[in-house]
Amino acid sequence: MKVGILGAGQLARMIALAGYPLDVEFVFLDPSADACANPLGEHLHGDYNDPRLLAELAARADVVTYEFENVPADVAEFLASHTQVHPAPKSLAVAQDRLIEKAYFRELDIPTAPYAPVYSFESLEQAISSIGFPAILKSCTMGYDGKGQSVVKSLEDLKPAWEQLAGAPGVLEGFVPFNREVSIIAARSISGDIVFYPLSENVHRDGILRIATSCEGDSMQQQAEAYVSRLMEALNYVGVLALELFEVEGDLIANEFAPRVHNSGHWTIEGAETSQFENHLRAILDLPLGSTAAVSKSAMVNFIGNVPATEEILAIPNVHVHLYNKTPRKGRKVAHATVRAETKDQLDSLVKQLATLADQVDDS
Ligand code: AMP
Question: Which domain holds residue 48?
């Protein structure tokens, strides 16, 4: 079987690494000549909307999937009319626009922060009068890792926040005073079976994920599973999906979902019976889904901007490092490492060592 992937970044690379033992081959479409998954398959080099390359991708692959959600709707539709595409274009359309996504959550009775659309400075003033301070103004599309977002704490912040949108449609969200951020990663098969990973507890800094810790037996697991299965069933979703949530006083509020494998699930490579990458492939290839059970306590730390010397990382006990083969650049995710431990204290100590190393090279 050959899987086509739009994008050849680290997510595509880890999907391919999970596919090799299953004898799956890969073809990537990516505009970057040195994209980090390229050595793991055929590389179609060019724009995502080049009709010739899309036709070639569709012809070469038995099934096409994505490593990012900002795939233009016409590209997704074109691919879906030529080959099998999972997840289906509808999931991308919902996930790539924050207003549509929030309305979809509400329709499914999945709670969100209060929000209002923003399409002019006047509408921003109106929105803030109903939502109140503090709030966050986000662009509706193309936002990731906290990009295109401004926190508004007082009237003086309104003008700069509006200017930052640069005329793009936006959404104003009430600031959620969360106790913690969590995500649930689930995989759904073509026949509708769903498996759920233990919750990840996620620590962000400057809008970028820094640490994700697996939380087996978490008190919020059931609520998160109910929300993510509602979402996947409504979308008739096939593949892995990540739902990001805020926990506020024992309740979960949805922030956003990613229709793909997710950074907060990288710990599943060594920390679960079957990784999110393998389960994504199993789902889209109509193979039985694998167990999501945790094999021990585990946590992942991202290396942003730069990577320490490999021997420094490997000097930490029970560590598993993943170097993405990407040129270091400010704010860029270039590697991650996962640690496993039997007890929480041991895990905390290993995470601290990894996070110290990550902070030493972090330039974001
Ligand atoms: P996002 O791009 O929506 O995932 O936002 C990036 C990060 O900004 C989140 O992981 C949170 O740490 C923070 N954030 C986003 N929206 C809110 C909100 N409504 N209230 C509080 N924090 C938020």
Answer: 2-85
